[in-house]
Amino acid sequence: MASSISVERQGAIATVALSNPGKLNALDRSMWEKLGTAMRELSADAALRCIVLRGAGDDAFAAGADIAEFASERAAGVQAAEYGALIHATMQSVAQCRHPVIALIKGACVGGGLEIAAMCDLRICSESSRFGVPIKNLGLTMGYGELQGVLAVVGRAVTLEILLEGRVFDAQEALAKRLVNRVVADPDVEGVAYAMAARIAAGAPLVARWHKQYIERLNPLPQVSPDEWNEGFACFDTEDYKTGVAAFLAKTKPQFKGR
Amino acid sequence: MASSISVERQGAIATVALSNPGKLNALDRSMWEKLGTAMRELSADAALRCIVLRGAGDDAFAAGADIAEFASERAAGVQAAEYGALIHATMQSVAQCRHPVIALIKGACVGGGLEIAAMCDLRICSESSRFGVPIKNLGLTMGYGELQGVLAVVGRAVTLEILLEGRVFDAQEALAKRLVNRVVADPDVEGVAYAMAARIAAGAPLVARWHKQYIERLNPLPQVSPDEWNEGFACFDTEDYKTGVAAFLAKTKPQFKGR
Amino acid sequence: MASSISVERQGAIATVALSNPGKLNALDRSMWEKLGTAMRELSADAALRCIVLRGAGDDAFAAGADIAEFASERAAGVQAAEYGALIHATMQSVAQCRHPVIALIKGACVGGGLEIAAMCDLRICSESSRFGVPIKNLGLTMGYGELQGVLAVVGRAVTLEILLEGRVFDAQEALAKRLVNRVVADPDVEGVAYAMAARIAAGAPLVARWHKQYIERLNPLPQVSPDEWNEGFACFDTEDYKTGVAAFLAKTKPQFKGR
């Protein structure tokens, strides 16, 4: 089955679903492109009042970027910067959507999936969800455009913990880390998320949009210079990156050398 | 009974009480003015060491601005900007008070009441307190001068949740959201709050004042330009604002149209 | 027994221990100097992958600056500014270390000890640890260079609570305040901390260093001007400071006069 981004509407509420069957909805290039396009189109639609962003099925919100593509799409720094610009544009399409966006999380919310969830306005997850960014095992860094959103949600100390330890953790720990707003028993999470969406949709829609703008204005995502931005792709030219991706695909333990 | 702001002193500790009987201490224009005056006078008094800010009675800290006044005081953007400047000046009189200010919270701490509490240095509440900013149901936005303080206390993600969902929540959730520093059983909350005030008053008073200044210096409330400031009152010129206030006063459910 | 800073290495993991027997590892001048030197040397060593910073023994991480030295080293503002510059340089040697630094906390983590822990990347503590900055009872302020790190970890509201109340609190409260990342049963805390260090050391080391840099770049510690910096030592010229230190050494209760 092919990967896809689906969009469904029910009244003033739209649902966007990430789908990559058999790969825990890991995002390949076409999904990053289609997600950005979908979010920009929905943002432009003034009749809309709330968006629910979720993974297809029950097993995952999303497991990050599709590592099988790394050899073809992110083999070295220059190429990876181009792929990184695509990821960043899509992250921004979520963060800058004028309507409130709820991340409805079930199962794996890992790597780029966690980053997308961090760009949403609200995060609600099922009790059996799990979270983490274990990219230190791939020899891979989170770029500035992805880091902005995670920092804005959980702050400096938790971001350091997530990235330096690279541990996968459960829903209650995600709540304690303030990575999610609410944890719900597995059978109820969709009901609670759509009740939240309905509550938002019943409010004055211009007020929701203004509140998003005002908060962004007072608390803008931090920016970096173009030079710094490009330095954020240095990992793709390291030997350790090749080692990490190869070990991941071979399901072995990488031996990093620090170069 | 008329609304009022009372000030009592016991040694180096002053108590300021918000009172609007039968209206959950909702703040009318005269209360905003008198609260600002009281806080500025107490700030100037070098003999003082701590202020406890509370609602009169057991039912509320404060329920926000008095909505009955909106038709006369905040009927459109220009007039609302003038009222907003008054609210902002009062918020700043709390935030910039040179003495430590403890919010002692019982019952409803909602809307502008929650905003005032956020401007205090410490927040302690009773187990049965409840919190929220359900202004999306009024077609009303929180202005920049109010939003600054809430963001400084709970951060971006919780502020978005509070404003977009507009849900009223209990004391334990307020603690988990870090909106309050401590939750105390109802019969004990006053004792614990005044023990805290006594502990503060026993410390070196110049040290408390310097610590407040140093923290403000390193973590200043974010500011906006005068033009942006004025754009923060756009909601008052919308049809949805009229709809929301009318529905509130009629105790009906508003049907917003997004204009 | 003399105070000391010890450094031990086991593979890619170094352990730095603060030791001042009988004084809960309170840092005297020579310890501030040696800690800074040790951290700068370890940071320069590219073969290293993780540092565990701890107190010697089971009774304390560190109890802050050694108050017995205050009469000779910090008797007035000008001299205290020089001592403060030393403290700041050491704090920065921890914060700017290019390797991940884990604070392994047992027992007292108070005053300057808490500040050092805040400069680390991760904080793990035993269940019986205790925390606080009761310097309001000494007539002493936290300088800008120390405050930066505490604010970066726990934010404005918790920093105000810690400094204004000056209360000593337990490990579970430290976790709720997000001052520590993890609380572990006393017998297990060393095992868990070194398992964390091993997990970090198994990741790509350049990735860990880049992540630290990227987060610092997006979330830099706030800075102040040299004039403001010097104003941060005003407390040392007050009568209350002399009163506070004398009362501490005499184990009596200080009576502050606000001058």
Task: Tag the structure with descriptive keywords.
homotrimer; 259 residues; alpha/beta; 2-enoyl-CoA Hydratase, Chain A, domain 1; four-stranded mixed β-sheet; 10 strands
Which spans of chain A of ≥5 residues are poorly predicted at pLDDT below 50? none
Radius of gyration of chain A, in Å, reads: 18 Å
Largest interface by Cβ-Cβ < 8 Å = A-B, 31 and 41 residues
Helix content bin of chain A: 40-55%
Biggest β-sheet strands, sense, barrel of chain A: 6 strands, mixed
The CATH homologous superfamily of chain A: 2-enoyl-CoA Hydratase, Chain A, domain 1
Give a quick rundown of the structure:
The structure is a homotrimer of 259-residue chains. The first copy, chain A, has 259 residues and is an alpha/beta fold.
Report what the structure shows.
3 copies of one chain form a homotrimer. Chain A is of the alpha/beta class. Chain A has a single domain (4-187), classed as Alpha-Beta Complex (2-enoyl-CoA Hydratase, Chain A, domain 1). Helices cover 47% and strands 17% of the residues of chain A. The first copy, chain A, has a 6-stranded mixed sheet, sandwiched between helices. A 4-stranded mixed sheet of chain A has the order 4-6-8-9. In chain A, strand 1 (4-10) and strand 2 form a beta hairpin. The longest helix of chain A is centred in the middle third of the chain and has 22 residues, at 144-165. The termini of chain A are far apart. The interface between B and C is large, with 31 and 41 residues.
Which helices and strands occur, and which strands form pairs?
3 copies of one chain form a homotrimer.
Chain A (H helix, E strand, L loop, with lengths): L3 E7 L2 E7 L9 H16 L5 E6 L4 E3 L7 H4 L3 H19 L5 E5 L2 E3 L1 H8 L2 E5 L3 E3 L11 H22 L3 E2 H6 L5 E3 L4 H14 L2 H14 L7 H6 L7 H12 L9
Parallel strand pairs in A: 2-3, 3-5, 4-6, 5-7, 6-8, 7-10
Antiparallel strand pairs in A: 1-2, 8-9
